[in-house]
Amino acid sequence: MSDKNEVERLKRLREKQLSARDPNAYERKVQGEIARKANTARKKQNFWKDSAKGLSRTLWGAAIGAVLGLIVLLVLGILMPGDLGGMLGIVAILILAVIGALIGGSFEWREEMRRTIK
Prior knowledge:
Blueprint: H1 2-21, H2 25-44, H3 47-54, H4 57-79, H5 83-117
Helix pairs in contact: 4-5
């Protein structure tokens, strides 16, 4: 019996020593970490969000102002009969887009001033 236990112990010891000497163990570990990081980075990418981050705040402000002006156009078109509601709505789109661009530009200017002060 003790001979069998001794043989098993020696086999386990040999396996442990071989696994400790494995030159590719560290390489496999590093490659696994790189693959995991690449998968998480790939999952986090979103075309629309990345594209939106590239636009300036001035353009965002103008776009938001134009959408608000479009809402005003629709409401005025429903409430006011004739062409007057449509004309006022178009003027509202233009005015709100300009106001939005000015507000967005002021946010950009503020960020630029903060960067300059630092």
